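Lab notebook, page 48
Experiment: co-folding of the full assembly
Goal: obtain a model of how the components sit together before planning crosslinking
Operator: M.T.
Materials (sequences as entered):
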Amino acid sequence: MSILSDHIEAFIKSMLEEMAQVEMQRGELARRFGCAPSQINYVLSTRFTPNLGYYIESKRGGGGYIRIMRIDMNKDAYVMELVNEVIAESLREQQARSLIAQLYEKRAVTLGEARLMMAAISDKVLPAPQENRDAVRAGILKNMLLALANEMSRKEATEHGTM
Amino acid sequence: MSILSDHIEAFIKSMLEEMAQVEMQRGELARRFGCAPSQINYVLSTRFTPNLGYYIESKRGGGGYIRIMRIDMNKDAYVMELVNEVIAESLREQQARSLIAQLYEKRAVTLGEARLMMAAISDKVLPAPQENRDAVRAGILKNMLLALANEMSRKEATEHGTM
DNA sequence: AACATATTGACATTCCCTGACCAATTGGTA
DNA sequence: TACCAATTGGTCAGGGAATGTCAATATGTT
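Observation: model returned without errors.
Model output:
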């Protein structure tokens, strides 16, 4: 049930684990996955954005290429940049989830902490406008506790398990 | 007797007896039972609620899915009691804080996790009624990140330090 | 009858993927 | 130099595929 974009993303990230920088041709990658070249752009623009810690250069024409660079920062700096620069006044759930996943991949948070954060920002627990603060908070905390309990109940799973 | 919902419920629960986590597609399940897809949502929202010990995630679009997780009610009895009994529909900030503090003292959560929870439920980040969901979420996440950064920046402090 | 529960269907939202068209770079040729 | 053809990547609108929401309706219970 996994999706083409996930495969492409995983492929690129596996290369980025060995090198901090990967260079390739869009068409070549598209042929490897049997998809339209623009699909590559879609993956890059949704999963390898600057906000997520990647930097991309490219060149057209003969000998053209796409270069994907992983930006490594120390954890404190990364977190502070997220707080100060990346997270705007408004943040949609999917963006938030990607950010948290990145924090986890960079080992800036533990699995348990990432789960808590996911739980706290889920649309499920956020208020219809008229609800009062206390009700909202109860929902958030319940959701966080459940996320944590769920993690504990499968503690024997893979150490660096998926989220 | 209204059978359909009961059948769907039983079907899901039978799967959950073998795995602690089940992933499926809403439309597929609806076809299997010959009902409207939204019927699945009804069953999930009435019979697989957090209070009953279930945690649900989902994703839309191509490759979308619904993931239903069962929480081990025995192992996590304390957490479930909190969710079901202690935390009412409404919870004021001070009550929430002492609850989290207790979790930490019982070593049910790490210091980092407790900080995150405190951050998520703080009055500071909860909405004035008219703000929209995204803005609320941004505030929550920022606050959690700050709590985390603050914890990291004094990593050398006492192991079981004060909150 | 009145109330609670169940079910449907229309519509909204989100994510994925493609194809047509556009832009830039290179190399060749007059 | 001027121009053209070939070769790359970029962008965007649109359609398809999946879940979410909600009001209306049907069904069951007391």
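Interpretation: Chain B touches chain A through 60 residues (CB under 8 Å).
Next step: discuss with group before ordering constructs.
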